[in-house]
UniProtKB/TrEMBL annotation:
Residues 760-775 have a biased composition (Basic and acidic residues). It comes from Amphiprion ocellaris (Clown anemonefish). The chain crosses the membrane at residues 50-74, 103-126. Pathway: Lipid metabolism; fatty acid beta-oxidation. Keywords: Acyltransferase, Fatty acid metabolism, Lipid metabolism, Membrane, Mitochondrion, Transferase, Transmembrane, Transmembrane helix, Transport. It is a multi-pass membrane protein. The active site is at 472 (proton acceptor). Residues 174-744 form the Choline/carnitine acyltransferase domain. This is carnitine O-palmitoyltransferase.
Amino acid sequence: MAEAHQAVAFQFTVTPDGIDLQLSHQALTEIYLSGVRSWKKRIIRLKNSVITGVYPASPSSWLFVVIAILATMYTRSDPSMGLIAKIQEHLPVSQSMSTQCQAVVSAVLFSTMLWLLLIFTMRLCLKQLLSYHRWMFEQHGKMSTTTKVWVALVRIFSGRKPLLYSYQGSLPNLPVPTVKDTVKRYLDSVRPLMDDTEYERMTKLAAEFESNLGNRLQWYLKLKALWAANYVSDWWEEYVYLRGRSPIMVNSNYYGMDFLYVTPTPIQAARAGNSIHAFFLYRRKLNREEIKPWLLRSAVPCCSYQFERMFDTCRIPGTLTDTVHHWQDSDYVAVYHRGRYFRLKVYQAGRLLSPREIEFQIQRILDDSSPPSKGEAKLGALTAGDRIPWAKARTKYFSSGVNKRSLDCIERAAFFVTLDDDEQGMMGDDPASSLDHYAKSLLHGKCYDRWFDKSFSVVYYKNGKNGINAEHSWADAPVLAHLWEYTLATDSFQLGYNAEGHCKGDVDSSLPRPQKLNWEIPSECEEQISQSLAVAQALADDVDFHVFSFRDFGKGKVKKCRVSPDAFVQMALQLAYYRERRTFCLTYEASMTRLFREGRTETVRSCTNESSNMDTVSQRLFRAASEKHQQLYRMAMTGGGIDRHLFCLYVVSKYLGVESPFLKEVLSEPWRLSTSQTPVQQVELFDMVNHPEYISCGGGFGPVADDGYGVSYCILGDNMINFHISCKHSCPDTDAHKFGDQIRKALHDLIQLLGPNQKEPSKPEESRPEVKKDQ
């Protein structure tokens, strides 16, 4: 096979005259250039490690300190108060050096120690400054004098031109709340959900826990907080994500959508060419740490550690627990098309292929008519089904030989690509319904045409639309959304397309063809694939989805009413749920804790005493509920949440082998309304004024409870809110479309309540047809 010949650097044949050795100049050149590229990356990583290691100082500041100390010595003064002389006395090479040389070396050593001490002091000061969170609780636009001074000090101690990971060593650790405070907040959160008898019983359980077992568990948690960078994150990743034995498809993975109203090109291969190239441009910036750290209020840094495993990462199944494996930079992507898997190299002779060249290679895959190997077509279903059967099958059938080599190729790829034969997006006679199909396609596809274990998989549809599906354990949605925003913007605004819709540039037709992966799947493995597919298909068929774009008003109008847009949407969700079910429920809203080192998420319990009073809506009750929600959100962001603390206490109790009726009941309560907002982080990449059609529809996830809803929303610009609603067909009490109608009605009722004299558009624009553009 041609691919096999391209994979080796030499060939040899045995003749009567001896061994005839034939070296391949092209292959050796490729090996040499790959080595050069690898060493360049190592040098860049070393340089960045030094810059990050001394931040908020800079490497050049060392030279400044050395020159300053030497200058003071030549003025006959001793800034070291005798320390330089002490160092000079104990220099091991003092006998072979002149007195003047000894003095210079001693001064340099003292300067270096002084410089390191200054760096440590600056980091300590910055860490203490970043532990101040009162600024978050102040009214927006009304900053206290203390906070103004604090902002100035943070900017002074933050240094200049930080790299992506520069702030990591200065971020404070997540504090452990007191058991008393957490229990009190928990009881407040469940009061509107329980009658007097239930609440009294829960109060007694809580009091017993607080006075007895709680303090013992808390001691171990405080010990962990002293030792670990974050007392929650590692346990959260392991026990919430990796130890789950049910399918990660629908239950854990989530998705992101393409532009809503425009498709930059209708050519599938061209869209993939630009997009894949943009992904690798982002990875290059990531490796060089050129991505700017995310700053709140342009001053307060957020943790960036989740970016580390974005590329070249895969979840590996195990019988007890899965693991997340991360490799060094892969120079290829794994591609799935019509039941076949391919290895597509995106680097040639040490350079990244141009978008036009990647398009050319993708088109080769699309034009390849070779049939799949026996058992290959639906192999991906193993990643969609239950985890234990997949772990056993992986050990039994993929641990050696050609199957191991091909599986390694997929798992070690930079990311996974699916070339889908379907057309998706807002289209046809029923554009609203087409969005629902689009969401389901991204969430689970055909259950075998995605590799759900990869950190993320990109789907390219036949009509040029695309989308992304992500595994959840390695990072949360805002991290992947940062990559997705960059890719969409670079694809359309930086790279662009020619008049025919193809990628710009020329093609090197001598590029080696993409390599088709080979498999030897035995019949027993095929049977397991079929079983996993049946489990996944039943799960996928049960998902009910509704996606809609609410364009009657947006955050611009809400902010004029002096209400937080997020609180407004959350209160609308509470009102909509109550109107549908005539009751309130335990509600989960994801909040981030990235103000702390290795922070991930915390839960905001949006159903409160104040929001449950809104069954009789009034402006006074609404404002009280929204203000309480904002207070809870700020508490969650600053380490004062409820659920992560209780979760960790529960984990400690399991390690100690003790039972807590209180913790057991708390952690078994179902989240019948699970919500999340995905904010647009890089607004500067998009022109919402001149090109409002270039906006993503956001993304979504599957329902958390069998009898509940999953609601993701994205607030875009001043006049749009996109909703992604999921539930299960098997539950007679849930209906995604009916709940969507209730949300629309609640949004209108609340804005009318806040500003009854404000004129609203009479007709929504959610059925606006899509425009396809060639650039």
